[in-house]
Every structure is written in C-alpha cells, then in structure tokens.
TrEMBL record:
Reactions catalysed according to its record: glucuronate acceptor + UDP-alpha-D-glucuronate = acceptor beta-D-glucuronoside + UDP + H(+)
Alphabetized UniProt keyword annotations: Glycosyltransferase, Signal, Transferase
Signal peptide stretch: none
Protein known as: glucuronosyltransferase
Domain of life: Eukaryota
Similarity section: Belongs to the UDP-glycosyltransferase family.
EC number: 2.4.1.17
Tagged with keyword Cell membrane: no
Gene3D superfamilies: Glycogen Phosphorylase B
Pfam families referenced in this protein's UniProt entry, alphabetically: UDPGT
Record-level Gene Ontology MF annotations: glucuronosyltransferase activity
C-alpha cells in the first residue's frame, strides 16, 4: 500500500499484526517446542518488540532478563515504553513524511497521528496479543513485559534520527552489520523482470551515457541495451562504495538507507509503506 495517509498505514499495520497474532497463537500452543526450549535454560531472551509474541514466549520460559529489538528504528509509542517521552511538538511521527521543522498544520497532523498510533497499537495490537497470552496461561500486561526488558536495540543511526531525548535503555545499533569498504567481484550478467520493464528501458534510453544496474530475477528477460545491466544478485555495499556510482534508487528500506548514508552517495528514495516515508 503506497499511501501517505497515517490512518491507511495504521490499518495496514493492524492487518499485519493480526497475522502475527495468529502465528503467536500457534507458537505458544506448541507444547513440544516450549518444552524443548525450557530444557535449554536460557539466561536472556532477545525479541522484536513491534509484535509482542517474543515477550510472551519468554514469560512462558521463565526468563527474567529480556532485550528488545526494533527493525524499523525508534517508534513513538515504543520509545515511551522505555522511559523516553513522546513529544509530538517537535519529534515527527514515523508514519508521516515530515521533518522536525514543522509548521503549525504539520504539528497538528503530527499530534493527531501520535494519538491515532497510540490507539491502534495499545488498543488493538496489544490487546490481541494479551488475549493470546491469557489463552496460553501467560498472565501479564504489556507494561509488565517492557519493565522486564533491560535494553532496546534500535536499527537506527543516531545521526540520521530526528533529535529527541532517549534513555540509557535505548541503544542505536543501525549499521552494525555493515563491514568495511568492499571491493567489487566479477558478477555474471543475468536477466531483468518484466515488471516496470518499459519504464526502466525508457529511462535508460533517455540517458545513454549513464550505466544503469538493476537487481532482478534471473528467469526474466529484457531487450539488450548497451547501458543497462541486470543481475540476480548484487553486492550492494560494494557498489555503493564504488567511486563511479552516481546515484542510488531505493524504496527507502532502513538498511539500504543506512548503507547509502555510510557511503556518502546521492540517492533517490521512493517510499512505499510505514517508516520509509521518514
């Protein structure tokens, strides 16, 4: 869903969470798996916190120490649970394509979006998970879980995030998987998918002096163009580090944003959903 409407994005998020809740119900009801995990006697549990199932699992296993992770960076309501205040007056919502320099209308939109997000997450998503927890004998509220969570590891870079107060519980680890500058290897030329084929061909034809590289499925085909090269797999980090790269086009996935920022290359971002609009 490509929409800048906060309510439409919240609706999509609610749908995604309903799938997570269903999967959580299956996991917590798998007595054999739970028994095997209990035998391992883990000391600490690490789980994504957007969906609370991992927290319920850790409660079943009797773990007292938990570490939360966030693949989409620091979300408003999530930060609040780790003692960082929610400040819509100058901290933009992750659902809106605005920055910290907001005018009055944008501040109003940001405040309303913050309220809607809180209602959607705590009133719908959290409640659904708590119903699953109770069904499987896990009696604790979401706040109880978060108070037992020692740290939140956020997939974000503090220099890319908008300025906001945080606490010692919140640790930015964005780019932790990025290695040093990589060298390009010889990659075999493959074929290009038919989706958006004509548009990409048109752009490549319009700029014959620029070389275009596209990551595609290997079973697809495309008419030959001297300046358009297609591959089934690409060493993205090595390409971004190459001195001849002029521009990087992406849907603004957070990991790609972290990689292109690290490389210092110009980029064109085409956001589709959720935090990508930031």
């Amino acid at each position: 869903m490509n929409s800048k409407s906060a309510w439409r994005q919240i609706s999509m998020l609610n749908y995604q969470m309903s799938l997570q809740v269903e999967a959580c119900d299956l996991l917590l009801g798998d007595n054999q798996t739970i028994a095997e995990l209990k035998k391992a006697k883990f000391d600490v549990g690490i789980s994504e916190v957007i969906g609370q199932c991992g927290l319920g699992l850790f409660k079943q296993l009797g773990l007292d120490h938990m570490i939360g992770t966030s693949s989409v960076g620091l979300i408003d309501s999530m930060a609040e649970l780790y003692d960082a205040p929610r400040l819509p007056s100058f901290v933009p919502s992750y659902l809106l394509p605005i920055n910290a320099k907001m005018n009055f209308l944008e501040r109003t939109m940001n405040f309303i979006t913050s309220l809607l997000s809180d209602i959607a997450i705590k009133g719908l998503i959290v409640r659904k998970h708590e119903e699953v927890f109770v069904r499987h004998g896990v009696f604790a509220s979401e706040d109880d879980f978060y108070h037992k969570t020692n740290y939140l590891l956020s997939n974000s870079d503090e220099f890319l995030e908008d300025s906001r107060p945080i606490t010692a519980k919140i640790i930015h680890i964005g780019g932790i998987a990025l290695l040093g500058k990589a060298q390009l290897n010889n990659v075999k030329l493959l074929q290009m998918p038919s989706v958006f084929r004509e548009a990409i061909i048109h752009v490549a034809e319009a700029f014959p002096k620029i070389t275009f590289i596209w990551k595609v499925d290997k079973d697809d085909s495309v008419p030959h163009l001297a300046n358009l090269h297609t591959f089934a797999w690409l060493p993205q980090q090595a390409l971004l580090d190459h001195p001849k790269l002029l521009c990087f086009v992406s849907h603004a996935g957070l990991n790609s944003v972290l990689e292109v920022t690290r490389s210092g290359k110009p980029s064109i971002l085409v956001p589709i959903f959720g935090d990508q609009f930031r």
